[in-house]
Design goal:
Shape: globular
Mean pLDDT: 90
Strand order of the largest sheet: 2-3-10
Order of helices and strands: EHHEHHEEEEEHEEEHHHHHHHHH
Oligomer: single chain
Largest sheet: 3 strands, mixed
Low-confidence stretches: 10-24
Number of strands: 10
Distance between the termini: 31 Å
Length: about 350
């Protein structure tokens, strides 16, 4: 799961505001500015890595593949042609940032934090796992359910000037399966096309729609048969995961919004979560042949981890319908999405919801 770059553009903008006018979260902004600059400072142009005799052959192969994907993104998907993902950095850790999300005991609505430039989002990112965990502990003490998850990449919207500030490739995702690597690059570049301030669901659903459409085209046109087969196995499990968790989210949301007492809601929640884990165990043992990759997620699942899934998927079908309505023409599609992003939120949602009519 990727992320929007509040750790980049918003942090840099907010740090200036805090220094000049005072800010209770100055420590957080300092953390994000330093973390982002350290990340950028460790990146080198891909050609340098390819020319370096010390670079492992496997890394060179993946970097070369990433550049073919990057060219494909410009030529075929009409995504921005700039310095993003033309450099590579090895962060010596497993995630670019760790996001913290939180939700109340009887709601799937995520707590939000507001930042200059990007507006309000339903997560807070940290470059240090310990800092993220400590913040999650503070939120739990306030009564929230929380989730901390590693993010392999994030976008700074292409808004920071110069090649140095362009989003780089990272060790946290460069070895992803081919289809997943394509998805991630296309997703992050899509964030540079347009941005609706404070509307995480709109922004992430749009980028997810672009990644799905783009990766399907890449796999059909630019990938080997083996890569397509590997991706199909990977994506089949992800589709099963989405179907299971969406069903649970819908039932939980209906329960939380009902007129039942809080005690009844708690009992219903316990039953639904237990059933979800039982259904997952069956799915894992049968269709997935024992694949354990989602074990941790289901063990830790709560309102926060379920709530954040909606941000990436809720409006994807509407964007896919819009793409079809615009004749599968990326330039026309992006122009319409930009128009929607400029509307007030309620008008934007209404217009997007009617895009398939």
């Amino acid at each position: 799961m990727a992320s929007l770059g509040i750790a980049g553009i918003a942090a840099l903008a907010a740090a200036t505001v805090c220094v000049t006018s005072g800010c209770s979260t100055l420590g957080y902004y300092a953390h994000t500015v330093n973390g982002h600059l350290q990340l950028l400072g460790s990146a080198k142009p891909v050609p340098q890595w390819l020319a370096d005799e010390q670079s492992p052959a496997a890394l060179k192969e993946r970097l070369a593949l990433s550049q073919r994907m990057r060219d494909f993104a410009v030529a075929e998907l009409k995504l921005p042609d700039n310095a993003s993902y033309r450099r590579y950095a090895d962060l010596k850790r497993g995630a670019a940032v760790w996001n913290v999300v939180a939700a109340p005991e009887l709601s799937l609505t995520l707590k939000t934090w507001c930042f200059p430039v990007v507006g309000c989002v339903g997560y807070r990112g940290y470059y240090d796992l310990g800092a993220a965990t400590a913040f999650a502990d503070e939120l739990r003490a306030q009564g929230f359910e929380t989730s901390v998850y590693g993010v392999p990449a994030y976008s700074t919207l292409g808004a920071l000037p110069g090649d140095f500030f362009a989003d780089p490739l990272l060790n946290t995702f460069i070895q992803f399966p081919e289809g997943e690597l394509a998805r991630l690059i296309f997703h992050e570049l899509a964030h540079q096309v347009t941005y609706a301030k404070g509307d995480t669901v709109f922004n992430e659903s749009f980028a997810t729609a672009v990644e799905r459409i783009g990766s399907a085209r890449w796999l059909n046109e630019g990938a080997s048969p083996e890569a397509r087969e590997d991706y199909e196995r990977f994506d089949r499990r992800r589709r099963d995961f989405r179907a299971l968790t969406q069903s649970v989210r819908e039932r939980l949301d209906a329960l939380y919004r009902s007129d039942a007492s809080d005690d009844s809601k708690r009992a219903g929640k316990t039953a639904l979560m237990a059933q979800m884990r039982a259904d997952y165990a069956t799915l894992k043992a049968t269709a997935w042949g024992g694949f354990p990759g989602y074990d941790g997620w289901f063990t830790r699942a709560n309102n926060a981890s379920l709530g954040v899934l909606a941000a990436y998927n809720e409006l994807v079908p509407a964007f896919e319908r819009l793409f079809e309505r615009e004749g599968r023409d990326f330039r026309r599609f992006y122009a319409e999405v930009k128009r929607l992003a400029a509307l007030p939120r309620d008008e934007r949602r209404a217009a997007l919801g009617s895009s398939g009519d």
